[in-house]
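Ticket #4471: complex job returned nothing on first submit. Input attached below:
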Amino acid sequence: MDLIESYKEELKLIRKPWTKFWVGLLILFVLLLPWYSPEHVTHICIIIFIYSIGALGQNLLIGYTGQISFGQNGLLAIGAFTFGHLVGHSIPWPLAMISGGLAAGLFGLVVGFPSLRLKGPYLAIATMGFGVAVYQTFVNSETLSGGRMGLLIKKLTPVFSLSPTNFNYYFNLFMAAIFLLLTYNIVSSYMGRAFVAIRDNDIAAEVTGVNLVRYKLLAFFISSFYTGIQGGLYALFMGYVEPNMFTFMESITLFVAVIVGGLSSVEGAILGAAFIVIVPQLLSQYKGLVPVVYGLTIMLILIFEPMGLYGRWMKMRLYFRNWPFR
Amino acid sequence: MRKVGVFVLVLTLLLAMGGHALAQSPGVTEKEVVIGWTTPLSGPAALWGVTALGGKAYADYINSKGGVNGRNLKVILKDDAYNPTRALANLQEMKGQVLAVAALLGTAVCHAAKDFFYENKIPLVAPYGNVRIWAELPKEKLRYVFVSYPDYEDEAFYLTDYGIKKLGAKKIALFYQNDDYGKMALVGVKRAVEESKGKASLVETVPYEVTERALATHALKLKESGADTLVIYPTMSHGALILKEMAKVDYKPKVLATFTLGDPIMYNIAGEAWEGTYIALPGHSGVPGADPEATQLAENLIKFNPEIKGKEYLAVHGAVSMAILVEGIKNAGKDLNAESLIKGLEKIKDWKPEGIGAPVTFSPERHHGVNASRMGQAKGGKHVPIEGFVLYKPRF
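Support reply: We reran it on our side without changes. The output follows.
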């Protein structure tokens, strides 16, 4: 859509003055939201921020690198329980959080190895097996999961006299912002271009000098690190984790976020995370119809907008930019 | 001067309106009381969501009789799919709209939401989950929580004690889920055996993992123990599986089961193997088809929601939970808010909701309203109570 004339321009996060204005307005809106919105809206935004991190990671893997993974529920559990156990042993939470991410990242590497030989549905099934195995391990091991009573995690104490909800909002917004900027950085670096090259044609990518083993595994590691951090933040926010919070449905949820939000789009991952959190919430009064209506909504989006919510947003932008011409 | 007069009038009106808004308690108007209920209506535990349908049908039934203290009950029913995140989001959304919340469902959901009620000054009535979650809360937080669920350890003691004293059990075995739920049962069983002073012994304990489906070796191990009485603490499906496997190896001890297997739907899952099983029926509900009051209540509920038919056991559970809340609202009087509701609930003494279950008592010092069991037996496709309720000391 935009004509980019130099590499320096390509690296710019925001290129046009008007875009800067709108982004500034959006940041202001997000920063002030807890002060004028009902508390439950703030609460829902917190969950969106937490899921955004996982969706961003999943988008790097599926959208940018073209590697399908259905093992995210296992990685989420690894991140959450690692965080929970470390915090329980008086390790400072930032260190515990990073350790949760790293633990998930290392397991992600293990999941990534089949990707060197497998593709498409075969890779999806292999990764799904990992997710199921991790879930079963936690369910069956009381030492790891805390059993039926789960693992209690001490929540953070709010600062600056903020209410717990507002504090969690700003805390998770900050975390999501860090990962958002990190993702922008990754996709506009050599690494990001290597991911895209692998997705488009891995043999051609290898011919042009992309080390397939390194970058495929790196994609799995980074994506899993994001998911582990999501697990840690989730555990910290809920103050409690147990294995049934990490069923296979969590993998599907993150997958839906990426597909509905829009593949290969950083903004799409955020929109997708918002979709998977807001839609069930809006439909929660329709009793057992939630999964049906939720599923139909996804189908309609995919049929009428295969590029996801971000694709729709781009079309709207183009329409208004060219208005009144088509 | 006239403008000043109008200004003063408008200001007075605004202040009066503001004052009125302040006096109004969330979820209460002159004509209506709003109750929140988040439960699994979809997902893996959707069947248990029937409790909420029963609770809502009971509210409609009360409304048809003129409501409570001139106010109708409105239930905001939300699906949480047994997911603590969604349950917490639902509760957040209900904040400011509801007077109280009824019956959270699931240990994970109860755990995730345990601080919510104190932090937001919203009473919670009759949650379904391990009571030890609440027992661990400090007193000021517990003030907003009213529980009528049995304690697993006390119930296991009751089952084993009954087996020893009434069924002449000499050699007892325990089949249990290998987690806190099953392990609390193990403590109760051991306590009962110790108190029997040598009349009975615990000859075998066989744990299973929740993910296991092949229970043939477990059944053989139980048979080899030579136990004449078996206490079981499984899920419904594992309960059915172990009994079927035991029947295959021709092992037929007396079986005593926890209340989570109290739904006669067990006959559909376990078939003939279920016949004769002793079940600890919980004090916080009744058995439609066996207790006349529960049968009558189930019939009334079906009139307001025909969907309940065939699932009356769980629906009555929900209705009884709602009945406790209704009694609290009734006792609170016309000036209804969270504080008066708490006081109203704390006035409940030796009272049976719709004449069902064991008597419920709350007080400022007691928020575990009923901790009781009675023995029932599976006979001819029904669960029939065979003795009165045995009351245990409340846990908090």
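Confidence is low (pLDDT under 50) at residues 10-23 of chain B. Closing as resolved unless it happens again.
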